[in-house]
Amino acid sequence: MNDKLYLGVGRSVITPRVGANLYGYSPDVVSSSVHDDLTATAFYFRQGDVEALMISTTVCSIENKLSDRVLGLLERELGISRDRIILHATHTHSGPITNGSTVGWGELDLEYCENIFIPGIITAAKEAYAKPCAVAMGIAVGESLVGINRRSIRKDNKVQLGQNPWGAFDPKMTVISFKDEEGRSVANIIHYGCHGTASGKNTQISRDWSGVMTDLVEELSGGVTAFFNGPEGDVGPRMPDGVSTVGLRDVRFAVQMGGVAAQDAARIYRGIKGYRTATLEVSRINIEIALNKRIDLEVAEREYEKFKDETINLKAAQGNHYRDVIESYKNGYVDKKTKTIGQTVIRIGDVAFVSFPYELFSEIGMRIAMDSNIPHTLSLSNSNGSEGYFVTEDQICRGGYEVEMFKNGQLQPYADNADHYAVVGTLEHLKKLNCKGE
User: Fold this and answer.
1) CA-wise closest residue to 40 among 17, 9, 82, 65
2) What is the pLDDT confidence band of residue 435, given thresholds at 50, 70 and 90?
3) Which of 38, 195, 356, 428 could serve as a FRET partner for 62 with CA atoms 20 to 30 Å apart?
4) pLDDT (0 to 100) of residue 2
5) pTM more than 0.70
């Protein structure tokens, strides 16, 4: 390999105005102050004729239409194909509403998106694109116990949000660092899988626990640092009470959990043994996920009567689902066998960033990483769109919040073994990438 790897970084503040709705719990949560600024951080990679762009935004999730629009704008403004871009949301529950596609969580904040969110992303991307420098990459992996499986099983055998010490959970935290040819730190990426719910249903705008972590590593290293959330669908912060994964309406819990994560990330960063050049490769394919048939019209009509007046969270989403099913029968909809999901992989040497528009269950990411031909295969949740929770087959029988969202998130529910299709499709995608880690 003769071509040097170039990296440019850019950042903009994307904090919403105080008084706007916050996203993640219910439509009635309104911000009262700013605890820490939200950001969009862009990483522009170039090697020869190959380009890639990764952007981390510290919001909860980005609906499909909004994500598609931003990707199109980035393609137009920078000339980088949207197939070579990963637009990611870190999944803080203390940020603005950038996903209004699911009924029950509030309407999309159009004013914020038009005046702050979209312009901020474009600004950060342009800054990154304008000033790349030659870099070498270092990698270190360690463990962090800031997260824990959150699908707690009650005495009555029902699943609720809590701490499940025997549930699937990936403690692996990966830090990827880039230095210029003079050995100066340029940027860092931290990958880990955990919900941004340590603040709970508080009213202060915040990046939640991951903000504390990235700030410390940035201060320690001197390089711009961003978080890319991994499979976090069934993982939440390990709150100090030993039973919860959602804070008690207080941002101080995010600071506390962030301190734990920050120490872990700093330790891992210091463990990077060396830096070397790496080959850049980007690939985009479609993965087909199997679908079940719609529920019968009679069932939909009966269930709709139970939920038609609900307006908040899961129950509102269920009511909306049953109404959509009823309408689909009236409109002559024909069931499909699969749903197509676009997937972008950005490989930099021994590291592959794999986009998913889902809140993946942690086991899915571990299965992909275990069988991948790339040493550090990092699955990203909430990337290039938002399709809701994506669960494992074994958890469907347990039910619970995530499973109900998985089953009611679209007109035709995913097949019970949809996770198998996602894993196999991703592994086939990864096999098509050819560059080596050197």
Assistant:
1) 9
2) low
3) 428
4) 64
5) yes
